[in-house]
From TrEMBL:
Keywords: Cell membrane, Cell wall biogenesis/degradation, Membrane, Signal-anchor, Transferase, Transmembrane, Transmembrane helix. The gene is lytR. Residues 1-11 are cytoplasmic. It comes from Lysinibacillus alkalisoli. Coiled coil: none annotated. Residues 85-227 form the Cell envelope-related transcriptional attenuator domain. This is Polyisoprenyl-teichoic acid--peptidoglycan teichoic acid transferase TagU.
Amino acid sequence: MKRSEKNKKRKILPWVIVIILILVGGVAGFGLMVYKDLTNTAKNIHTDLKRDKSDKREEAINVKDLHPFSVLVLGVDERKDDAGRSDTMVVLTVNPQQKSTKLLSIPRDTLTEIVGKDFNDKINHAYAYGGIKMSLNTVEHFLDIPIDYVVQVNMESFKDIVDAVGGIDLKNDFAFSWGGKDFPVGTVHLNGEQALAYVRMRYEDPRGDFGRQDRQKNVIQAVLKKGASVNTLFNYGDIFKAIEKNVRTNLTFDEMVDIQSNYRDATKKIDQLYSGDGDGQMIDGVWYYIYDDKELLSIKNDLRKHLELPPVETLNNEE
């Protein structure tokens, strides 16, 4: 599937900043009681990946020193008796000196090497094979950049977060029905169940998986807008519980605070990168998205430059 838009700038607040702001934003107004609950939530969602730095970096980054960093956001569809797939994979690079963020959504059906399995498959299968760490390693290899942080959001139970903020309002571009629920054109109010159906629909979207990725990001933005309101913050207990249930990250509480304090200007200029020159192919009866080699190399070096790393001259499979 081709997409004509490339390097289109959008004012999209990155998912990781969404999580950080929801966690950190209400502390000043609610004092020590909220601060205690906040630190407990940050502790409960933390997961240790047991590595000091990425193999793609010579030195570990430190957000206290305002180093550029990267984040992989996984929207995981986990169900009973199923390891799940990472339905959404978003990579962000954040450069505080340039006051900018770059955002890349990787199509879930992208064909690449699954690091640790030594064979090629859809990139979203890495999570099913080896969880967060294998997803991180696979994306690092695919893009040839270090991944410093990971945020995993459970899409199956994400409805709990939507309900915790009292539902969300967003603008829907075209009418469709999915999961027994109707979504007319215009502004719609969604509860948790409706929001889950809204982000899961793919086949009726003329933009396919790209369209679903945009709807997922729109839902996250709406959650942030509603979650940051004064009235919603009085319901912070339910919000924290929903986050604890649905979010995992290797970010520590101190890193969240440092990023919120020192990197906020980086969200003022956000470049969203699109893969517009690739195409879909059937291989042994399975549909895959195949990146255009020249475009993929350009994306890699765009992200590397933003991370203040030297460019690469070839793709991994050409080295």
